[in-house]
């Protein structure tokens, strides 16, 4: 492509559309009349509790099953090694990798469960603070209304 052709194509493209920024996005959803605005993130304690419980159950159940799989695999690997099978060393390697991977999953599920428990407690404290602040404002308003004779 020659330089002149490049310049001509750039000029044509500039003439066809503005140089403003265009963001690709989904069109806004029509309002359902439910009163919630698009884009607001809402979560309740029931949702958090369900996620935390699921993470705790996964941690507990996987920990038990994972330990059984590890012990069985290592026992089989030992038996194969003593009988001179090369597969024994390979199975032992797989069992070692299994230990690393299962520990990572157990750590992650414990972190999720613990973090959600912490979040639940922190938000409960925030709710107490906010309700205390709002009730004190209502008390002040009532006092001002009494003075005005309303």
Automatic annotation (TrEMBL):
**Disordered: annotated segments:** 10-40
Report the domain of life of the source organism.
Bacteria
Polar residues composition bias: residue spans: 16-25
Q: What is this protein called?
A: Uncharacterized protein
